[in-house]
Amino acid sequence: MLHPGSLCCNSSHCTWTSSHEMLRPYILKPFHIFQNVSKNTGINNIGRSLRVPPFMASQLPAATTEHQLVSTQDGSSQNTAPQPLQVAKRLEKFKTTIFTQMSSLAIKHGAINLGQGFPNFDGPEFVKEAAIQAIRDGKNQYARGYGIPDLNSAVADRFKKETGLTVDPEKEVTVTSGCTEAIAATILGLINPGDEVILFAPFYDSYEATLSMAGAKIKSVTLKPPNFSIPIDELKSIVSKNTRAILMNTPHNPTGKMFTRDELNVIASLCIEHDVLVFSDEVYDKLAFEMDHISIASLSGMYDRTVTLNSLGKTFSLTGWKIGWAVAPAHLTWGVRQAHSFLTFATSTPMQYAAATALRAPDSYYEELRRDYIAKKTILVEGLESVGFTVYPSSGTYFVVVDHTPFGLENDVAFCEYLIKEVGVVAIPTSVFYLNPEEGKNLVRFTFCKDEGTLRSAVERMKEKLLKK
């Protein structure tokens, strides 16, 4: 019988004390505090409760109508009421990300972190040396807003090699601070309040948050196990003249699914028929194990309506550099660049020079990368199966989704809490990646972007301590 215990994190940024509730907001009703806000707070929507991120909740005073005594500059005292956290309505439902929470808990409990998708090994020496050389050469001031010419050209060259499409590096390539910023610039630059955007659930959590900031109307189509195939009839039923864009991700995080050519053709035909844009997140394009990656922009009639989003971090194990880019026709690039110029304006200059070097790596680099990740994937998948999980196929990315229900916990959050505290391994509950969290309550995500020793140690911990009911 498994009993999820209470968890707690004590770091330089947060202190959780009643921590079984830490992850609850992801599957239960939102946490509410300060339901009666006095007029002197300056909040216009008096009486409306505010949703408080779990990592901040324990630092706040309990909601109260009693005034507290504070000292003023002249030494006198005055009464003041506790102030509620303030956040724009468009972000009220979002809390600290699940990745931050789980990584903090991993540190607290000495757990092996197979949750957040960052490698525990370093990137290639030739790329790091290129960054060091750029710094020594004095390339340390602001870069051109949409990217240094050498990186824009390297992106365009790589895009042509992969898709067969020739793009103008000066007019159709925009360098951003990671793919997450490329996504944000694309959405904020091309989506108007009230525009309808379709997602495939489960989805990377920044999609929903950024669409909410843009005031979009979000719809989702759910990809279901075991194969996470697109439900074609459902997709056809919701794409209409009201649809502004489809935001997709292949290879797909968190499931590891790769969209097939047939699926991409259906999406393309619907977009052409209804004049719909596509925002295609392809950051895992070089981590395709069982089929070739296909960029939807390469399909007939699609380049003029597609923004292709990518980054350096996943392929070169340099996630902290935050180098991303967007490739799009000039008429769409205009909107992307307008938003980008007011988000970050420019991306780290020396890292851009190094990124240009990285993108010119020989094919042998990518072949070795795939071989290495296939070996890591095999260790994790075979280990999870031996422990008793139902493991679903993963054709790309460095993630594997499993069904945790053989172990008897009520949902994915409860299971992940138990896994961290009692077993010492971190996974990510997938319910946070759905508009309706209930759809993901049976699934959790593991990553294999760790060295083989770490993966084997995690498997051994689960074999030793994780028992079926």
TrEMBL record:
UniProt domain Aminotransferase class I/classII large: residue ranges: 112-461
Cofactor needs: pyridoxal 5'-phosphate
Superkingdom of origin: Eukaryota
Keyword field: Aminotransferase, Pyridoxal phosphate, Transferase
One Pfam family per UniProt: Aminotran_1_2
Keyword field contains Transferase: yes
NCBIfam families: PRK09082.1 (NF006569)
Name recorded for this polypeptide: Aminotransferase class I/classII large domain-containing protein
Organism of derivation: Rehmannia glutinosa (Chinese foxglove)
